[in-house]
Amino acid sequence: MEEKKKKTQWHNLLLLLLTLNIFTTAGAFNYSDALTKSLLYFESQRSGRLPYNQRVTWRGHSGLTDGLEQGVDLVGGYYDAGDHVKFGLPMAFTVTMLSWSVIEYRQQIAAAGELEHAMEAIKWGTDYFIKAHTSPNVLWAEVGDGDTDHYCWQRSEDMTTSRRAYKIDEKNPGSDLAGESAAAMAAAALVFKESNPHYSHLLLHHAQQLFEFGDNYREKYDGSLEVVKSYYASVSGFKDELLWAALWLYKATDNEEYLKYVINKANSFGGIGWAMTEFSWDVKFAGLQLLASKLLLEEKHKKHSHILELYKSKADYYMCSCLNKNTAAKNVELTPAGLLYIRQWNNMQYVSAASFLLTVYSDFLKTSNGNLNCHGGTAGHEEVLSFAKSQIDYILGSNPLNMSYLVGYGPKYPQRVHHRGASVESYRENKGFIGCTQGYDSWYAREEPNPNVLVGALVGGPDCKDNFVDRRDNYMQTEACTYNTAPLVGVFAKFSDQENMDQGQNLDFVASY
Ligand SMILES: *[C@@H]1O[C@H](CO)[C@@H](O)[C@H](O)[C@H]1NC(C)=O
Ligand SMILES: *[C@@H]1O[C@H](CO)[C@@H](O)[C@H](O)[C@H]1NC(C)=O
Known about the structure:
The protein has helices at 2-24, 31-44, 88-111, 115-132, 146-151, 175-192, 197-216, 221-224, 229-232, 239-253, 256-264, 285-295, 305-322, 348-368, 381-396, 420-423, 438-444, 475-478, 482-512, and strands spanning 86-87, 139-143, 165-168, 333-334, 340-341, 372-374, 377-379. With 513 residues, it is mainly alpha-helical. Strands 1-2-3 form a three-stranded antiparallel beta sheet. The chain has a two-stranded antiparallel ribbon with strand order 4-5. It has a two-stranded antiparallel ribbon with strand order 6-7. The protein contains 19 helices and seven strands. It has one domain: Glycosyltransferase (Alpha/alpha barrel). Residues 1-27 and 503-513 have low confidence and may be disordered. Bound molecules: 2-acetamido-2-deoxy-beta-D-glucopyranose (NAG) (2 copies). One 2-acetamido-2-deoxy-beta-D-glucopyranose (NAG) is lined by residues 401-402.
């Protein structure tokens, strides 16, 4: 009897240790290293005149006459992915997510010695948005166009494609683009509040004007700009971006008017109506709902708790569906090895965005002493965080192919990223001009690995069966985008701090057993 009891106790302890090991895999990945690399990626994507302290040295200046045809200075900003179009909507979302990462995990980023780099990555975007916002109701939305750009395979330093710029204004408005740009600048204003108050103020000024422009002239930007339609059409419309912008403006200004907007329009704009399983450059509802839930932590928001609780119930829905604790039909699909799977083309963008929301949500649960209550069970903050970690660890190599989908991280990562600059010999090494179709013939079609490693890029990633084909023409899987990596900055920072905490926690756990 006693013997059996002892055995069971040991058995339980073993199970517990195994479980802990599975959930924490302490020391398996170096998240600080991943954080450092993720920030380097934004230097590879820089357009314009590169600064003296540029660390990614295979890149050179590019796009130095952007906007010239239209008489506006649009030099700078980011190329969105493996091509050279500057698309406003995904660029703004990238900057919002970088800023949110710093807002949540500033201490951890600083402890890893990366705060300066993170702030530079944000400022490279916001400096461009300031240039692009040439008057209160004019915002330049795009430079170059997908069709002509994709016709060529060139380094950005050799670009010969059209650099025509497109704008939204009163006659051709775009509330989603204006809203996301306002959100990005308001969030960035919070990042720079103490270190650069003048800049922070300037960003707020632009953000407020852009929000007003978006709100006063309500229209989807792809209804005004034909050119964005086949690349970044706004399928979810603009109501999510307007609510999202208002909430970021409220956080940045403490002005009650913005909060009222979020509360009063919660219903009519779908903020408390849409239950989503995707968070992306297009669909902001889940992020908005989480951000609104966090207001519940402050006493001063008590008078709005009814609406805020409704926002929270939709945030819960998103988290439950990621954890596969909703009813089956409402769960996010998982690959056999456990990766969240939304769709075939660039699935990793949804994984990194979900990991960020889950990580922040786990902090929220911990602070509020709450649990996530789902149709299919309850989860505490540790389980939510463990799930986020499972996604991040999959990204870094804990998957059937032992492949890190973060380029340049670990011993095995994609070698043929679908990226013009990375796949062609560096401009620094060969300044000879490489023409539009010459790039396709000489570089795109090669079997060999890319000559330049696009460090920190998160590629589109595997299919629904965890398969991945490392070919340059497999752009659904091997292309990377700025908004894939941006949310990882926050998540890597969170886990880089966990690295130090895990061991202590494990010991505590065993001791109390
Ligand atoms: C993690 O990587 C960084 C380099 O980015 C290195 O300095 C550090 O020593 C590594 N930490 C561990 C525990 O290996
Ligand atoms: C991945 O690593 C594991 C453990 O080292 C090994 O057993 C497995 O064969 C590897 N798989 C591939 C595809 O390399």
